[in-house]
Description:
Layout lengths: L27 H6 L11 H4 L2 E5 L7 E5 L1 H8 L6 E5 L6 H12 L5 E5 L4 E6 L2 H9 L3 E3 L2 E7 L13 E9 L8 H8 L4 E5 L1 H4 L6 E9 L7 E4 L2 E4 L1 E2 L86 H41 L6 H12 L3 H39 L6
Antiparallel strand pairs: 1-2, 3-5, 3-7, 4-5, 6-7, 8-10, 8-13, 9-10, 11-12
Helix pairs in contact: 8-9, 8-10
Pfam family, one: DUF4283
Organism: Cajanus cajan (Pigeon pea)
InterPro entries: At4g02000-like, DUF4283
Amino acid sequence: xxxxxxxxxxxxxxxxxxxxxxxxxxxxxxxxxxxxxxxxxxxxxxxxxxxxxxxxxxxxxxxxxxxxxxxxxxxxxxxxxxxxxxxxxxxxxxxxxxxxxxxxxxxxxxxxxxxxxxxxxxxxxxxxxxxxxxxxxxxxxxxxxxxxxxxxxxxxxxxxxxxxxxxxxxxxxxxxxxxxxxxxxxxxxxxxxxxxxxxxxxxxxxxxxxxxxxxxxxxxxxxxxxxxxxxxxxxxxxxxxxxxxxxxxxxxxxxxxxxxxxxxxxxxxxxxxxxxxxxxxxxxxxxxxxxxxxxxxxxxxxxxxxxxxxxxxxxxxxxxxxxxxxxxxxxxxxxxxxxxxxxxxxxxxxxxxxxxxxxxxxxxxxxxxxxxxxxxxxxxxxxxxxxxxxxxxxxxxxxxxxxxxxxxxxxxxxxxxxxxxxxxxxxxxxx
Length: 431
């Protein structure tokens, strides 16, 4: 028997059937629990022994609760598949985050998002494959800032949570193409942090301006700003770390907000120093509030290297500066329209040139009725070569003609009024 389904063969579902609330999708709680939420029987966990209650110092205003381990593990079980995310160095709203993640991740299934506090969000995916993709597919970036992705843990508290490490893309500019080998690049990256992978464009050698490697770095330690390869120093650039200080190499503040002094150790070879220091004096601080000799991890300044030409480990090159596309578009538009503005005065002057020439011909025609002084002035106006002068005389001529037309109209109106007045004075018998 062949079964045919019709849209009107069944009554509509009541709100709440099949996990739907009034036609809307499932809630975050239902995603976590794996099904529609059901009302639970309220239990007294203290009397059951699942929770304990104590008072700090015997004061009832300071209650202390403790959940026994079996009950706590049961509560945590549904949440172990959730992820905690946060944008490093930037806060955005819930709707913006949700819409951007849809575009960024391109998942096979759906996901549910909930905002917690302090810029943290929790995510639960429908498919385990999507969870694996988000965890292993990074580093993800939104608004040129890194998206921190962490598995949820029972110890996570948004108010006390700190981001101490992240995946970043680092660049090695001016590196020779001969070194675009995966093993070589990952070995170099191991001195910066934990090497993760090499960018495909670098492996395929489709771009040669810089090599790009993904590295996991510590945010509570100064970053590596240079490395030496076969006797040549190369810079290390970091993408998306906008709060990276160019003076000390630490994340969390920028150069103009950095001001501190660091005690230096007693030097054994003063002749090798750019600025001689004695005893336990502090290092030199320049007028911008930065150290003249940056201290390295081993406690030695850059000027204390065995070679006198060793570079500073940190500088303005640390953070990759991306161009603002909107500003570039405006700048390009202004350049394209600039010639039109420069040509505008000549264009206006050329339009008035015909009026000026007509004015000159009219003045020559009416020269028999005007005095020689006026005729001389008109010839001088026509002979002028300045576009501004021609435009000014043309505008003056136009204003003069307009005034004359107004006077003629006023005269015609007054004459018509006099005629009407005279008609009213004629006796009726004379008509």
